[in-house]
């Protein structure tokens, strides 16, 4: 196997506990260049934990992770230069303007100020944010902030993009643009690791879906392949089936009866 055929991410025997709580119980995964992975699972399943370990934000774990062929525990953080990350909750610098924030991030990635400014400005225009480029981020709406975070994750032209619920707050037009951007990036060989609870979108954009439950991978394949193995026609149905969740109606009825009982 030559170097170009090597998986871009390899995870072997990944285990992670917080105190006595075992969160990841042996994750094994090879991700190929150009894949859009939909990484899904119930609340608390360990999706963000897996991503944070890959980003080097959590250092203590059992198992081996290679990104771009390098073991990430070797102390060399160079690989991070080729990664983009949109966290579920972004701490962005409210008192900075869009321009200040994005050029700052661009410079952290090694771009010079003018290159970062030009790129950020063009991307802000394409996301309809040109008018607020010089306004403080504290004045942005939720969706506007989210777009600024997405732009910041793209400034370094990353080879792997980790997205944790990236569309929250974004309007339908922007979602449409962003979905196309992801498909286009993947077609150019970028790898996308996409975590979300919006099953309709995961179903549409991912060419490979990985479902974790109780710390283990319980499904891995294209949406069509998962459908073949299931009685369910939608990803939402497959998700319910594989996570053993059947009581939604009973739970809903109980909630309503408690609400009405006050
Ligand atoms: N720093 C931490 N300290 C202690 N427990 C943690 C920590 N981070 C995560 N956990 C626990 O690990 C489990 C997995 O959390 P994680 O955030 O990875 O889940 P998730 O699959 O991303 O969930 P969600 O869909 O709700 O975002 C949860 O039980 C959570 O409480």
UniProtKB/TrEMBL annotation:
Cited InterPro entries: AAA+_ATPase, ABC_transporter-like_ATP-bd, ABC_transporter-like_CS, P-loop_NTPase
CDD domains: ABC_DR_subfamily_A
GO MF term list: ATP binding; ATP hydrolysis activity
Keywords, sorted A to Z: ATP-binding, Nucleotide-binding
Location of the ABC transporter domain: 9-239
Gene3D superfamilies (UniProt xref): P-loop containing nucleotide triphosphate hydrolases
Entries under PANTHER family matching the protein: ABC TRANSPORTER, ATP-BINDING PROTEIN
Protein name: ABC transporter ATP-binding protein
